Amino acid sequence: MENIVELINVTKTFKDFSINKMDLQVKKGFVTGFIGANGAGKSTTIKMMMNLLKPDDGEVKLFGMDYTTHEKAIKERIGFVYDGNVFFEGLNLKDIKHIVGPAYKRWDDTLFYQYVDKFELPLNKAIKTFSKGMQMKASLAIALSHHAELIIMDEPTAGLDPIFRRELLDILQELMIDNDRTIFFSTHITTDLDRIADYIAFMQGGNLVFNQSIHDIDENYALVKGGLDLLDKDTEKAFVHVRRASTGFEALTNNLSAVKNIFGDTVIIERATLEDIMYYMKGGVHYV
């Protein structure tokens, strides 16, 4: 399966934070959800993908190419959807088209007007009059109008009302009918990804905890509840993290088959949501 993005042993160090020898692959034709708490390293990783930051060590490749020798070719093929307006606020969409269009060899005016119509965006109103949701649609229309193969979205649903968030997710699902398009979707609102993501990459404290398919996560991760008498040094090895209370324990496992073998029907097993996984991982993490 072809990788559109590859970060190979990437390290980036700041005064009080670092990305630590990250290996990340984004597969062609799928939606990868990029999750983690604020400050986990998501935006830093995306900036390195966009060549806005350079790694201190390691390689960043998009479409099998590196930015050192193929920057223009890479940027022709990616579209970045911002979580707010990045254009001069007095411009309207027609102005932006005239500025942005000539920068791309594959810019398609017809497609641009199709998306403007589909997204119900006004052509002649200043961007500053757009709601946050409309600004998001405008960024997406521009990205799609130069036939971007990789759409990178950094917290696109943050600050949007629930109805508009759902509408945006419907748009993204529709876009993925074309198997040649790939979406990399960074968010801390994990419920959005339950509907559209094929893969989940989870960052915490500058480390990539895992990068797995939704199917594998559902197969391996679970919440387990039972009595405290079931816990000892050996049985606890089946869990990523355990929370104890006077009434019993609740724990996250990333090895559901082992839990079933060890505990049988003496525990309650429930599906772990992405939010559950993020919450419990704060207490103890097994890095890949």
Automatic annotation (TrEMBL):
Entry-linked Pfam families: ABC_tran (PF00005)
Statement: the UniProt record of this protein carries the keyword Transport: yes
Coiled-coil intervals: none
Presence of keyword ATP-binding: yes
Molecular functions (GO terms): ATP binding; ATP hydrolysis activity
Keywords assigned by UniProt, alphabetized: ATP-binding, Nucleotide-binding, Transport
Domain ABC transporter stretches: 5-230
Family annotation (PANTHER family): ABC TRANSPORTER ATP-BINDING COMPONENT, ABC TRANSPORTER ATP-BINDING PROTEIN ALBC-RELATED
Protein name as annotated: ABC transporter (ATP-binding protein)
